[in-house]
Amino acid sequence: MSDLKQKLLIQLSDSVVNMEEILTVELAQTYIENSFDPYEAINKGLANGMDRAGKLYEEEEYYIPELLMCSDAMYAGLDVLRPHLKQAELGDKHTVVIGVVEGDTHDIGKNLVKIMLETLGFEVVDLGRDVPPADFVEKAKEIKAEIIALSTLMTTTMEGMAEVMHLIERDKLQDKIKVMIGGGPISKSFADKIGAYYATDASKAAKLAQDLVCGRAQR
Amino acid sequence: MMKDKMTPVERSKALARGERVDRLPCNPNIANGVARIYGCKISEFNRSARTIADAQIAAYRRFGYDGVRIFTDLFPWAEAMGAKINFPIDNTADLAAPAVDDISQINSLKSADPYKDGRLPIHIEAMKYLIDELGQDVSCAGGVVGPFTNAFFLLGIEKMSKLLFTNPDVVHRACEVSLETCIRYAQAIIDVGLTPTISEPMSSSTVVNPKHFREFGAPYLQKLVQYINSKGKPVTMHICGKTEKIWEDVVAMGVAGFSVDNVVNLQKCKEQIGDRVKILGHVDPSSVMYAGTPALVREAVIKCVQQAWDAPKGYVIMSGCSLPVETPFRNIEAMMDTAREIGYPIDPETLDKM
């Protein structure tokens, strides 16, 4: 790997961590001007920065506003890099339907998962927040999504998650659509109970989605 | 359900004098769940002061807990200052749109008049009914969100989160005008004879950096607390989520009581700040109170009491946050009955064997 490329990847990651939106854009432009691989810039630069920001959040060095600033920097960088991605680099097209279950309007966690999924090359259809269970299944059927990702911060939405599972069973879609869930009150035992997959955080959720479409995920 | 030997007011007066009481104070913090007990739709609270008060009264009479409060959601103050609110027919109100679309409108924000704007007059009227009917028996409170939290609803939650970094002046302006609203409302609460309580969810270290809390949250909150204290009233504050890193800041404001969430270490909280403020908390409102069983509730209450019963400035058994609306009545009963079963004075050895 060229020294310049290596240096730019580190700087891209740093500028996301440091919440520097303008610098991230400039670095992404320099990177593209040098004809380096945009997929790597997303993966090893921007997503890496977001990953580090997430760790800082876990360590209570960063908080929600810091994560929002980082994600803004990341999105700004993505806007520069994305037009230069070749479809082939995304591999086969895989679609995820994502949203926050009805009864909850907290969507920061969902937005982070969405960013992570997009940087891994997923096509993400975002239904937003406070979404009725049936809407997830309808949308997934309509666009032939392979994954439904449900996020919540509130226990009151957990029944809605179980409802999504019922609808999928009713329509016999278990083999076609996998459901992954996450968020504050969700545990692996709850996921197991309703037959969904569970991820503890946004980047793990994105990796889980990757494993699911490659058929190598275990519940 | 077991019966109490004292009213909450008798209990609290006796505790303050260091006399014997029948049990520790206990407040499940039912919130809009009172609609389920009284039998009305939550949206009726948006229009009828009588219904708000009657639902509170019905819930108090059913469970006998140590504190009633007029507080239906986080948004009446932002609404009174121009924010748009969603009012579901039978669930708690939620923010639909902030008071300003663009920060250039910041100077058009005006503080609210508690007797005129939005639902505030309804809440003040409900407070009058509440204190008339229950004031002899139980401490009656009027809830208000703190200026920092309210500022988020004026500017938009995500937008203000970023403004903390990009435009501190606008954030300070929103906090200032919020403080004015909070102070006017607190004065209205005091004028009808109730005691203000402050909820400051956005100050939580689960949400914002303690550094931002100190810069934007604490200065305005402190002014609100000092205002209330200057009128001869003590004030209890609740901050959701993690708070350990800001405990000392909260104590320094001069609050009389601090209500903590279930994610906090209660014992540590008592050890660190229990010598200066009363501690309230922290039975898990969702996994224990909403989704648990009476046996789980009993276990959780005992565990809280073991950790905090000997807090020097006093301890109140409470949920870590407002209860979900659909919390089963039997779990609320179990909370109260466990407080009654534990009794008073507390004997740690008996407690360990329960």
Task: Name the descriptors.
heterodimer; A: 219 residues; alpha/beta; Methyltransferase, Methionine Synthase (B12-binding Domains), Chain A, domain 1; Rossmann fold; 2 domains; 5-stranded parallel sheet; 9 helices; 56% helix; globular; B: 354 residues; TIM Barrel; 8-stranded parallel sheet; two-stranded antiparallel sheet; 47% helix
Describe this structure in words.
The complex is a heterodimer of chains A (219) and B (354). Chain A has 219 residues and is α/β, with parallel strands linked by helices. Helix content of chain A is 56%, strand content 10%. In chain A, helix 1 runs antiparallel to helix 2, helix 1 packs parallel to helix 3 and helix 2 runs parallel beside helix 4. With 354 residues, chain B is α/β, with parallel strands linked by helices. Chain B has one domain: TIM Barrel. Helix content of chain B is 47%, strand content 12%. In chain B, the strands form 2 sheets. Chain B has an 8-stranded parallel β-sheet with strand order 1-10-9-8-7-6-5-2. In chain B, strand 6, helix 9 and strand 7 form a beta-alpha-beta unit. In chain B, helix 6 crosses helix 7. The longest helix of chain B is centred in the middle third of the chain and has 24 residues. The two termini of chain B are 18 Å apart. The model of chain B has no long low-confidence stretch (mean pLDDT 96). The chains are: A alpha/beta (219), B alpha/beta (354). Chains A and B meet through helix 4 of A and helix 7 and helix 12 of B.
Stretches of chain A where pLDDT is under 50 for at least 5 consecutive residues are none
- Largest Cβ-defined interface: A-B, 17 and 22 residues
Number of helix segments of chain A? Answer: 9
- Spatial arrangement of strands, main beta sheet of chain A: 2-1-3-4-5
Helix count, DSSP H or I runs of 4 or more residues of chain B: 15
Task: Identify the overall geometry of chain B.
Answer: globular
Structural class designation of chain B: alpha/beta
Q: How many structural domains are formed by the residues of chain A?
A: 2
Number of strands of chain A: 5
Largest sheet of chain B: 8 strands, parallel
